[in-house]
């Protein structure tokens, strides 16, 4: 047999073997949101719709949540691969033994704040004195509020704290049983406006009390055993938020397509607020998801002073930037 004939046969054999080999399957991955679908989550749905996760070899399932505490628990038990959780809640969970870590910091400015009826005329922290404030005993906002009082030299005795269940805070403000509530600029603000009442927001971050907002978490075993998966997931997440910044309407459309019963107008309002919270002065210009040591350190200090955090760990124990794409 001539050499050319032999080479042709061998090439055909190798081609057959290559074509017969099964294609490498994508990794099945789930992400647990911190709450029901809200504006902050829309970019994740956009990334899935645009194929960013598929590009990274990830078959993504998005699961809605019931709070950051639940997200830390399900990721800590490996029921979900990744999760979205408030950084403060995540830090406290880690201090209590849940083996998770933040692998991305997409919200570096807290949305926590004082949400009021616009006609209550609360424009500065000092305007709270003489007003009624709806709060929920023991929640993160109420625990941090003394930091607002201290930072702004307020007289706490002149602020009437009305303790109600979480769901009753908005009702209290709408019915004028309270002038304002402790809540979130991307949540209760829009709930009030959805009832036809003009709302106003005074963010904690703008009055001296900023903590890192929502973070992306995973189990420490995943970090140690499958760093490539973590890196690919973070890359897809970063692309998703970049795409949402470029086209917020596309992000809303992707979210509505996934869950048609949501209010697209409210969702867009929430998203636009949240996109303004991605970067802090310390993280600005370093890429979506970058966590600044100053922000995480300040968050830990506030948690120790006002939320009873017990830890001797440095901030780097709780978060990492190691999986962000290199600039």
Binned strand content: 15-25%
Mean pLDDT value: 93
The whole-angstrom Rg is: 23 Å
Number of domains: 2
- Poorly predicted spans: 16-22
CATH architecture of the largest domain, please?
Answer: 3-Layer(aba) Sandwich
Q: Overall 3D geometry?
A: globular
CATH superfamily of the largest domain, please?
Periplasmic binding protein-like II
Which structural category do the helix and sheet elements fall into?
A: alpha/beta
CATH topology heading of the largest domain? D-Maltodextrin-Binding Protein, domain 2
Largest sheet entry: 5 strands, mixed
Helix content: 40-55%
The number of helices is 13
Describe this structure in words.
The chain has 327 residues and is an alpha/beta fold. It is globular and about 65 Å long. The model is unreliable at 16-22 (pLDDT under 50). It has a five-stranded mixed beta sheet with strand order 2-1-3-10-4, sandwiched between helices. Helix 6 (140-151) links the parallel strand 6 and strand 7. Helix 2 crosses helix 10, helix 2 (42-49) crosses helix 11 (248-258) and helix 11 (248-258) crosses helix 12. Helix content is 42%, strand content 16%. The protein has two domains: 27-109 and 211-317, D-Maltodextrin-Binding Protein, domain 2; 112-207, 3-Layer(aba) Sandwich (D-Maltodextrin-Binding Protein, domain 2). The chain has helices spanning 3-20, 42-49, 52-55, 68-76, 87-95, 140-151, 168-174, 188-193, 220-225, 227-246, 248-258, 264-275, 293-306; strands at 27-32, 58-63, 82-86, 100-104, 112-117, 132-135, 160-163, 180-184, 199-203, 214-219.
């Amino acid at each position: 047999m001539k050499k050319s004939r032999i080479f042709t046969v061998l090439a055909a054999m190798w081609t057959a073997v290559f074509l017969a080999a099964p294609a490498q399957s994508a990794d099945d991955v789930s992400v647990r949101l911190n709450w029901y679908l809200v504006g902050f989550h829309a970019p994740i749905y956009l990334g899935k719709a645009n194929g960013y996760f598929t590009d990274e070899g990830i078959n993504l399932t998005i699961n809605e949540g019931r709070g950051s505490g639940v997200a830390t628990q399900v990721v800590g038990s490996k029921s979900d691969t990744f999760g979205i959780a408030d950084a403060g809640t995540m830090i406290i969970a880690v201090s209590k033994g849940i083996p998770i870590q933040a692998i991305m910091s997409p919200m570096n400015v807290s949305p926590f704040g004082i949400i009021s009826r616009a006609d209550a005329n609360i424009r500065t922290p000092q305007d709270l004195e003489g007003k009624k404030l709806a709060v929920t005993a023991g929640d993160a906002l109420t625990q941090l509020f003394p930091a607002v009082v201290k930072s702004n030299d307020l007289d706490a005795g002149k602020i009437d704290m009305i303790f109600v269940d979480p769901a009753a805070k908005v009702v209290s403000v709408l019915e004028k049983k309270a002038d304002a509530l402790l809540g979130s600029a991307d949540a209760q603000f829009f709930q009030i406006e959805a009832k036809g009442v003009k709302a106003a927001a005074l963010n904690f971050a703008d009055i001296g009390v900023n903590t890192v907002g929502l973070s992306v978490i995973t189990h420490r075993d995943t970090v140690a055993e499958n760093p490539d998966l973590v890196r690919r997931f973070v890359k897809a997440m970063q692309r998703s938020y970049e795409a949402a910044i470029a086209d917020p309407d596309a992000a809303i459309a992707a979210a509505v397509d996934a869950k048609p019963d949501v209010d697209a107008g409210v969702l867009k309002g929430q998203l636009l607020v949240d996109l303004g919270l991605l970067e802090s002065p310390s993280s600005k210009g370093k890429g979506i998801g970058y966590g600044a040591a100053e922000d995480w350190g300040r968050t830990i200090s506030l948690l120790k002073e006002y939320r009873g955090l017990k830890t001797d760990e440095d901030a780097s124990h709780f978060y990492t930037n190691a999986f962000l794409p290199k600039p």
